[in-house]
Write a structure and sequence with these properties.
By secondary structure, this protein is of the alpha/beta class. It is built from six helices and ten strands. A hairpin with a 4-residue loop joins strand 9 and strand 10. The chain is globular.
């Protein structure tokens, strides 16, 4: 199996508990679920409907307020902003709007309005989304194409380490909608392929790119 990011040969990682095959790339450290185990659009929607990601969830709101304070405000954005994959309750979109930003949002399940493709953006946020990508390079290229020159792409996803035992016991992997798992090395390759520069991260779950 070839890596979906860099095209290198991968190595099989087998989950004995759930009988699922994953593939790990020793070159860029991308790790992904076999296509046969990926659930359907409707099945994924049923999972997302159970999430309590709303403006009434104070912990969820506080997480995004911290993201805005630490990663968005320092950028001094003055143009359009897109929240890509905004979820059933577009909390980040609402908070960005409250900051006075010209914000839009898109979600294939809850706000499938393709009008977002008609604009370019100074900032695109995509939080807890890229782990759901079946074809990550295609999706990252799409997001990059929507950025203005010198625009920013802000990603939130839990970054995995290289320990496979840790991965197989990782709570983040237990979500059946999570199919793509990224190491920091993976984002170096994504940046190269997609015309981006990785400029900041927190070693845990937030990565900031800039459009070249």
């Amino acid at each position: 199996m070839k890596c979906k990011i860099c095209g290198s040969d991968t190595r099989l990682v087998y989950d004995q508990q759930f009988k699922i095959k994953y593939y790990r790339c020793p070159n860029c450290e991308f790790l992904f679920m076999e296509d046969e185990a990926m659930i359907s659009f409707d099945e994924a929607r049923a999972v997302y409907d159970t999430h309590e990601n709303s403006i009434d969830n104070q912990g969820y709101v506080d997480m995004f307020k911290g993201l805005i304070e630490d990663f968005v405000k320092p950028l001094k954005i003055s143009g359009r902003v897109l929240d890509f994959g905004s979820g059933p309750g577009p909390v980040l979109y609402q908070l960005l709007t409250e900051e006075g930003l010209d914000a839009f949002h898109f979600d294939p399940f809850y706000n499938p309005d393709n009008a977002y493709k008609d604009s370019l953006y100074q900032l695109i946020t995509s939080t807890e989304v890229v782990e759901h990508f079946f074809d990550p390079i295609k999706e990252f290229k799409h997001l990059s194409s929507l950025l203005e020159k010198n625009g920013y792409l802000l990603i939130m996803t839990h970054i995995r380490n290289k320990d496979l035992d840790v991965f197989l016991n990782w709570w983040y992997r237990r979500d059946v909608t999570h199919v793509s798992f990224y190491h920091l090395n993976t984002f170096k390759y994504i940046a190269q392929v997609c015309g981006l520069e990785r400029i900041k991260h927190n070693d845990k779950n937030i990565i900031l790119f800039k459009k070249k």
